[in-house]
Amino acid sequence: MTPKRAAIVVALAAIPVLVTSVVFLPAGGVVSLLAAVGLALSLAGIGLALLWATRSSWAPEPAPAARTFDRAAAQRRTRRGLQVEGWIGVIGGLGLLALVLGLDDDERSAVRFGALAVGLLILGAVSIVVARATGRAKGEQDAVSDDEPVPSGWILVSRRDRGSLLVFALPGLFAVLWGAWQFVPFFLLSLREGPTLLAATLGLAGVAVVGAGAVWAVRLIPDVWVDAHAARVRVGAHTASAGALTAARVSATAMMTGGSRSLFLILEGPGKLRVPLLLRRRGELAMTPAQRRAAVALVEAAAIELPRAKEDPRGKFSRTLYPTHLDAAQAREIVARPPRSDQDLPVTVG
Length: 350
What we know:
Blueprint lengths: L2 H22 L4 H25 L17 H30 L6 H27 L20 E5 L3 H7 L1 H24 L2 H25 L3 E4 L4 E4 L2 E4 L5 E8 L6 E8 L5 E8 L2 E2 L3 H13 L16 H4 L3 E2 L1 H9 L14
Antiparallel strand pairs: 1-2, 2-3, 3-4, 5-6, 5-9, 6-7, 7-8
């Protein structure tokens, strides 16, 4: 039996034990103790299955020799792990839903485990979709320099990108799922047994929290307009002069290790002034040549310099204290020629 087949067998054996242990964990007494042991063993089995899924044979693997980073191999390994985790989540969620249907005596536990099952299904489905989406190889192109004049008037240089928004808001999404798992059972219980005023208050509070999160997510990456000749920038409904931008930092993220990354240059000014310029969208150039010329003109007109700490007024250790920030020359270069995913960034990100 190959390691991959053994991983499938172990995973199929561990998932029912995991689901059963979660269901009987609140029972109390010896049953809870056995459920805890089963939970630990099933999680260990799933971890072992994930480990075996990455092996091609049972033969001892020799110590790897020094070699350069293989981006394609890392992407394949990560995609394979995402697929395994995704199917474990989907199968585990379906199994947990099937067991929840039999919990007629304890409605509160049924609602909690039902929410957990839905969460597992969502995370599993997202993992599978991400693994398949990132499996499509794309050839990334370099930005082409030209001597065309900078366009006049307001020009949209960076559009709100839903995919990049999802990546940057992913930690908040996990927090929302956890909060929903805690909130939904309490809300349903108050709706059924509590006073109407309490249920209405909780419902309005939930809607307000979701609405505030949506507004925050939309404002995280707004549309950016630039008037290069007037040296002005408009972020959402806020307009400022280019000279008000005094700092620039790089933000890069990828859906998986070795995958195509989204690249941002974030210009900052006093207060909450923040201008995110999307340079690459999942590896592909996000700006047209005209938009890039306007963005370069904005960076050239800005008063960008490395931040200085109070304890370091001369900025001697600015690059160490602010590793993701760029100086004016680096900021202009990264906008004019955004590095591909297989190229190094001028600063350390992550």
